[in-house]
């Protein structure tokens, strides 16, 4: 383990020294016709390599030169594509627009995930702060409680392929579940106090619309039709 730590440290140091070499990230590593490959371009491409390749490029001048030659070749091919006017073709533009939309959607999802994480952190932080003393009074889950919960629900505790999961495998999750159940009354009392001080209005119609949208039938691919479930056969009279 010590050798591995030393090796990693050497690699990180070498990479840092290379990145902070002659100048800033704007330093030109190579000129390709009217374009330039900067230190920032080089390092950005380097980050996409696996660790072994990164190490080779950083530590071996020959590998570094070969990698830069590859980047020059890539730039030349792109320049040739533009010279032929491929970037002006309708199909290419359509593809680019589609990619832009995908990136925008991805950014929105990342931003939403960040906002969700911030909300979760705030939620947990205030509960820890305001309910810390009360939570101390909640009894810990006993071995018997955990085992009883498992025995009661073990037919539902299975792998996706239906295999029974043993108690020891799910015991930690069961203990967390039972702890949450014990803490929930404290949480409900806490939110009840907050609601009493707040101004709250609920739009039942808007709620109904949202639920209706969620319950819309799934649209089937073109050419497929939904089949009605066969009617239950009446039992023959004896």
Strand-helix topology:
Layout: H1 2-19, E1 28-32, E2 35-38, H2 39-47, H3 51-59, H4 61-83, H5 90-135, H6 143-153, H7 167-197, H8 204-214
Antiparallel strand pairs: 1-2
Q: Nearest-angstrom radius of gyration?
A: 31 Å
Helix content: 55-70%
The total of helices stands at 8
What structural category characterises the helix and strand content? mainly alpha
- Number-wise, the strands total 2
> What is the count of structural domains?
3
Report how far the terminal alpha carbons are from each other.
79 Å
Explain this structure.
The chain has 238 residues and is mainly alpha-helical. The protein folds into three domains: 9-88, no CATH class; 89-133; 138-194, no CATH class. The chain contains eight helices and two strands; from the N terminus they run αββααααααα. It starts with a helix and ends in a 24-residue tail after the last helix. The chain has helices at 2-19, 39-47, 51-59, 61-83, 90-135, 143-153, 167-197, 204-214; strands at 28-32, 35-38.
């Amino acid at each position: 383990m010590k050798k591995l730590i030393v090796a990693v440290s050497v690699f990180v140091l070498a990479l840092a020294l290379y990145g902070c070499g002659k100048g800033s990230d704007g330093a030109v590593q190579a000129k390709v016709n009217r374009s330039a490959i900067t230190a920032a371009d080089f390092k950005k491409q380097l980050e996409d390599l696996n660790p072994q390749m990164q190490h080779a490029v950083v530590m071996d001048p020959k590998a570094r030169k070969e990698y830069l030659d590859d980047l020059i070749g890539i730039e030349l091919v792109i320049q040739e594509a533009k010279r032929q006017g491929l970037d002006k073709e309708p199909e290419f533009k359509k593809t680019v627009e589609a990619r832009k939309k995908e990136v925008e959607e991805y950014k929105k999802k990342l931003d939403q995930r960040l906002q969700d994480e911030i909300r979760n952190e705030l939620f947990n932080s205030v509960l820890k702060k305001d309910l810390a003393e009360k939570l101390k009074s909640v009894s810990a889950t006993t071995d018997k409680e955990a085992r009883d919960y498992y025995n009661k629900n073990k037919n539902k505790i299975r792998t996706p392929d239906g295999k029974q999961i043993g108690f020891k495998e799910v015991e930690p999750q069961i203990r967390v579940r039972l702890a949450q159940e014990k803490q929930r009354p404290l949480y409900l009392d806490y939110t009840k106090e907050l609601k009493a001080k707040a101004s709250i209005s609920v739009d039942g119609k808007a709620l109904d619309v949202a639920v209706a949208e969620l319950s819309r039938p799934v649209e089937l691919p073109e050419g497929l039709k939904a089949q009605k479930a066969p009617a239950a056969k009446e039992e023959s009279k004896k």
